Description:
The chain is an alpha/beta fold. The protein folds into 2 domains: 10-237, Rossmann fold; 278-468, 3-Layer(aba) Sandwich (Rossmann fold). It has helices at 22-35, 50-59, 68-71, 76-85, 114-120, 137-148, 165-177, 208-225, 228-236, 248-252, 294-302, 336-341, 343-351, 361-366, 459-466; strands at residues 10-14, 40-45, 64-66, 92-96, 125-130, 154-162, 182-187, 196-197, 200-201, 280-284, 306-310, 322-327, 356-359, 369-370, 373-374, 382-398, 410-422, 431-433, 436-438, 440-442, 445-448. A hairpin with a 2-residue loop joins β20 and β21 (445-448). The longest helix is centred in the middle third of the chain and has 18 residues, at 208-225. A 7-stranded parallel β-sheet has the order 3-2-4-1-5-6-7, with helices on both faces. A 6-stranded mixed β-sheet has the order 11-10-12-13-21-20. Mean pLDDT is 91; it is low at 259-275. It is globular. α1 (22-35) packs parallel to α2 (50-59).
Amino acid sequence: MVSTGWALPRVVVAAPASGHGKTTVATGLLGALRRRGLTVSPHKVGPDYIDPGYHGLAAGRPGRNLDPWLVGPERVAPLLRHGASVPTPADVAVIEGVMGLHDGAVGRRGYASTAHVATLVDAPVLLVLDTTAQGRSAAALVLGMRAFDERVRVGGVILNRVGSPRHETLLRDALAEVGVPVLGAVSRSAEVAAPSRHLGLVPVAERAPESLAVVAALADLVAATVDLDAVLDLARSAPPLTAPAWDPLAAVGGPVSTAAGGGPAGVTAGGGPARTGGPTVAVAAGAAFTFSYAETAELLAAAGATVAPFDPLRDPGLPAGTRAVVIGGGFPEAHADALAGNAALRAELAAFDGPVVAECAGLLYLGRSLDGAPMCGRLDLTARMTGRLTLGYREAVAAADSPVTRAGERVRGHEFHRTVTDPGHGDTPAWRFDGAAHGFVDGRVHASYLHVHWAGQPHAARRLVQACR
């Protein structure tokens, strides 16, 4: 583990509430700074999968999440240092917040909030402020945000949706009164929007050409409206990052010895797992299954697996030699017909007798049908879209042994979906939380709606590779 201090410039992009323009500014900053020739490390507070996709496109390296609830507060700074080091050391890290600056896990007094993460990584905050229908009161709002928690340093403001030059002058003068510098101003007419869906933005993988255009437009916008030198000065005011870098090899305790070979798969120059002689773990990817944390593949590789992505929309079969399968989240409901049309892969997954781990979208895909379209039939359930959004952090207890859990273990995860399954859980459920059973353990299959970040549960990766024996 690296343990010496690293003077990593870093800044947290936050807001008083959702909808103020954090993603616009953070993504634009990443793209604009990269155009300057800087190596930029992108990060996102919270469990969200979609924003990091845009961040990664803008920065040219994977977007990574920093979530104290999912991984534990002690791992947040090490994960930042790891992400900013792979595949090469970054010149600056940009961390987009979640919701409002002080909004975190319900009833936990700001735990897992953007403010909490800002203190854990000792980074200054750049506050994005929607100024629609606001004048001098904007300064009072910023003053309150700054004073609410004295450990959080609000180092500057970017004014968003400014109505006119006169409006901008009024806002700048008011913020000067409270001693908070304005580092940029974006007019209402200059806004750039990315298409949205019921769970947020449309993932990058589903609209690659359009996503490139949106990210380029955001970089143009920020370069034209934000004082990038002032933002860099703010980021450089962060003290050295003294936390040791998170190490996937140390987290899993080294490679597992298996019949198919036990050498560690390692990591390529691009940050992905290298292909070696370890057991092949197939990981669903493509437009329908975009929800995955970068550390999942790193942990599997460190445990000795060869990680092989496959696209259930296009690939007629699992990668050669597959010993285990991981199917994460995404939007299968938007691709149900195309998934149904790949009958050969559905049949192979239905008959696959190795360990399978599925989260949310993966759960739906393993069922008999989704909104009437045939799926794999590996699990005896049907699924359908509803108008109700189920979301939030969960504290769960494993209800049974499985390829990745042991009965009685406690984990922290999150749910985020608008679908339901019938039945809601199997005879042997995967989890128990909120006084109810959830998910399915069926033979060597573990499937549920719960998303878990494996950096907080590294034994899951090790166990899955062990289950390949």
